[in-house]
Amino acid sequence: MHKSLLCLLIVTVYAASAVPVNSDYSEDRAYPRFIEFPDGEGVMHTVDLEAEPDMELLDEIARNPANNQYFLFTRRNPSNSQTLVINNANSVTNSNFNANNPTVVIAHGWLSNQNTDINPTIRDAYLAKSDTNVIVLDWRRLALADYATAVRGVPDVGRGLGQFLAFINRVTGQAFNRMHLVGFSLGAHLVGNAGRELGGRAARVTALDPAGPLWNYNSNRVNPNDGIYVEAIHTDGGYTVGGLGIGSNVANADFYPNGGISQPGCLTNICNHNRAWELFAATVTYNHLVGRLCTSSTQITLNTCRGAELRMGNDILTKTGSGMYRLDTARRYPF
């Protein structure tokens, strides 16, 4: 079901009472043991943040971090993918991959796969805009595990993605500064780790509402050194346990649309959370959402940011910027 419908149809009641944090966008948010977290179709699942992780699966992923699937889409095959296989040069040279065109990698979140809405939405925006190698990463082998296990395995899966992109570089000669890594929720931390594996040489890393539970003090979370330019879009940070996103600065430039907590037209945290990738896809097409630099989280909350302007999202590989930004959007696409 389309996410815009979910925003109207799903009303989520969180299992635990909210615990206020010490300050806006604080890392001190306290989560209860049991929370509700959505899958890629917007269905809520009860998550035990203290669950024992599946060590057998984690050991397998650590031994073979490249155990992912990579699906290539280009203007020559906009809807039927070609499978790229790490260390199989023929899978790349016989595909429509064009090293002269920029590459964007899309990484889904928890309990999701290549068919989850984020992938075709961002893919179609890119291919309508320009000739691009769009690679959809399917990491369902780990993403379908329980949340605590998935969190533990994200760094290794990210490492595998980084190794895959190094392989693409060797086979095609495409420079890392022609690559843009985009990830949502858990996938945001995944692409951060992929960028780290590449020594921060990827042109851009875009973190779409990076997941919050078990990441506040996690050294493996996305950070400003993961790419030449790292950007985060926070749409469901929240002051309390209800927010699914991390809600704190993690990038060179951190954007807080509508304050970063509640989005226009949304009634649930699922809708707020998904709005990050919806906004990003719209900016690839229109490059129309402009943030204003803020000096404090209080300015973000009160909507009193008056600093320099920076456009949120878009597909520009040479984009630069730093600081935290507030902007307001409309309720419906293109926002």
CATH level-1 class:
Alpha Beta
Secondary-structure element string: HEEHEEHEHEHHEHEEEHEHEE
Number of strands: 13
Percent of residues in β-strands? 15-25%
CATH homologous superfamily? Alpha/Beta hydrolase fold, catalytic domain
Strand order of the largest sheet: 4-3-6-5-7-8-9-10-13-11-12
CA-to-CA gap between the ends?
20 Å
Keywords: Secreted, Signal
Pfam families: Lipase
Family: Belongs to the AB hydrolase superfamily. Lipase family.
Subcellular location: Secreted
Short key terms for the protein model shown above:
335 residues, alpha/beta, Rossmann fold, 11-stranded mixed β-sheet, two-stranded antiparallel ribbon, 9 helices, 30% helix, globular, disordered N terminus
Describe it for me?
The chain is α/β, with parallel strands linked by helices and 335 residues long. The chain has a single domain, classed as Rossmann fold (3-Layer(aba) Sandwich). It is 30% helix and 21% strand. It has helices at residues 3-9, 55-63, 89-93, 118-129, 140-143, 147-172, 186-197, 269-286, 297-302; strands spanning 34-38, 44-48, 69-74, 77-84, 103-107, 133-138, 179-184, 204-208, 229-233, 253-257, 290-294, 309-311, 323-327. It has an eleven-stranded mixed sheet with strand order 4-3-6-5-7-8-9-10-13-11-12, with helices on both faces. The protein has a two-stranded antiparallel ribbon with strand order 1-2. A hairpin with a 2-residue loop joins strand 3 and strand 4 (77-84). The longest helix is centred in the middle third of the chain and has 26 residues, at 147-172.
Question: Which SSEs are present, and which pair or pack?
Answer:
Layout: H1 3-9, E1 34-38, E2 44-48, H2 55-63, E3 69-74, E4 77-84, H3 89-93, E5 103-107, H4 118-129, E6 133-138, H5 140-143, H6 147-172, E7 179-184, H7 186-197, E8 204-208, E9 229-233, E10 253-257, H8 269-286, E11 290-294, H9 297-302, E12 309-311, E13 323-327
Parallel strand pairs: 5-6, 5-7, 7-8, 8-9, 9-10, 10-13
Antiparallel strand pairs: 1-2, 3-4, 3-6, 11-12, 11-13
Helix pairs in contact: 1-8, 2-6, 4-8, 6-7
